[in-house]
Design brief:
single chain, about 100 residues
Length: about 100
């Protein structure tokens, strides 16, 4: 009897492994402290991986964490963009008020 220690063949063996945990960590880091530096990669990687999951090229187990990380990255990018716009508007308002007082 020749037994080998090979894992059972499943339909997921030939699929690319998901990166859901990595994308989720990047998304959470973007909300907590890293901003655009991890938010944009979480958004891009999440979008690409979800396309691969829907096409059947990547393991579907990571779909939930991939979506969560991508959504965190999107939220961070929107909040950061709104913050930058607000800061620029405050600076322009300050310059306008200063020039009106002279």
């Amino acid at each position: 009897m020749d037994e080998t220690n090979t894992p059972p063949q499943t339909s997921h063996n030939n699929l690319e492994p998901h990166r859901g945990t990595l994308i989720l960590v990047l998304g959470i880091l973007s909300l907590v402290m890293c901003g655009f530096f991890t938010g944009i990669p979480a958004w891009i990687m999440g979008r690409n991986d979800l396309k691969k999951i829907k096409a059947g090229l990547m393991e579907p187990e990571g779909e939930g964490s991939t979506k969560g990380g991508m959504i965190c990255g999107i939220i961070c990018c929107i909040i950061s963009l709104l913050s930058i716009i607000g800061i620029v508007l405050l600076i322009l308002l300050g310059i306008g008020l200063e020039s009106a007082n002279i």
